[in-house]
Amino acid sequence: MKFPTTRLDRKDITTNPFAQFDRWYRHAKQAIGEEDAQVMTLSTIDLEGFPDGRMVLLKDYDSKGFVFYTNLESKKGRSLLKNNRAALTFFWPTLHRQIRIQGTTTLVNTGEADTYFRSRARISQLGAWASQQSELLDSRGTLEKRVLAMDLLYKGKEVPRPPYWTGFFVKPTSFEFWQAGEYRLHDRFAYIPKGTRWMISRLYP
What we know:
alpha+beta; elongated; 30% helix; nine-stranded antiparallel sheet
């Protein structure tokens, strides 16, 4: 029997999962563009105890964790304020790679949130005020009228960051790096913290 030659071996990954993430993420940005590379599934536990997932954008990361932004009054915001556990999933199908991250969340500081908010397009800033995220909306026209009202309110002025709009920082408690293999003989490596180091284990596909 001849096995597939394309595989991910232990020697191909680093001892630090943050460095491994950076390596794969940079490759994804070069191969498919930053907009597609930064898309991730954010999974939370909702207020009724059900798992809940949606696509969000990774906006920053470093050697300690990952950052995304949202409305605290949204469904995901309220969920995380009650239960700060979350999971992130990156899937780049054209690269045949996936990264899964579990962790706990905290709010970013106001300075970081203000800086990122100022970097957004003005209409996106206005939308943060106009949108009652996750609430019922009777029509698209109502949303557009609210955006126009905010535009009039802040005409000729800088749009301030809404107090309920900020970022979450995800501190990982585990990582998993997955690379597709032929005939579904995939390669999976899990990183679990052990003291000050990360223990690496190969998983069955």
